[in-house]
Amino acid sequence: MTVFIWCSLIFVILSMCGIMYRVFKGPSVPDRLIALDGIGVMLISSIALLSILFDTPFFIDVILLIAIMSFIGTVSFSKFIERGEIIERERPH
């Protein structure tokens, strides 16, 4: 079982390196945004595999924190790409 987890961890890290290419060479900004979200998912996967490998539940808090930050970042970047601003304010007349 340990060999399978190590192999999975290596494949996840190799996939993360492949996605880094899309972050730097993406043809458009939305492609780069999707790649950044993919890196967040791969990071969560690798930490989950390490948590299983080390047989500790302490990494679950880190996984939740990274997931929340990744979601907020993706939503913020998407909103900025769509509208040009992240926080909309009421302007006085």
Would you kindly provide a written description of the structure presented here, covering whatever features stand out?
This protein is 81% helix and 0% strand. With 93 residues, the chain is an all-alpha fold. Helix 1 (2-25) runs antiparallel to helix 2 (29-54) and helix 2 (29-54) packs antiparallel against helix 3 (59-83). The longest helix is centred in the middle third of the chain and has 26 residues, at 29-54. It is elongated, with a radius of gyration of 17 Å. The model has no long low-confidence stretch (mean pLDDT 87).
- Number of helical segments with 4 or more residues: 3
Number of strands: 0
Rg from Cα: 17 Å
Instruction: Compute the average pLDDT.
Output: 87
Question: Which features would summarize this protein structure in a list?
Answer:
transmembrane, 93 residues, mainly alpha, transmembrane helix, elongated, membrane, single chain
